[in-house]
Amino acid sequence: MAVNRVGDRRAFRVAPSLLSADFAEIRAQIELVERAGADYLHIDVMDGRFVPNITWGPKIVKDMRRLSPLPFDVHLMIVEPERYVDDFIAAGANIVTVHWEATVHAHRLVQQIKASGARAGLSVNPATSLSVLDEILPYVDLLLVMSVNPGFGGQSYIPTSTAKIAEARRTINTRALDVEIEVDGGVHLDNVADVARAGADTVVMGAGIYGTKDPAATIRRVRELCAR
Question: What is the pTM of this model?
Answer without folding.
Answer: 0.93
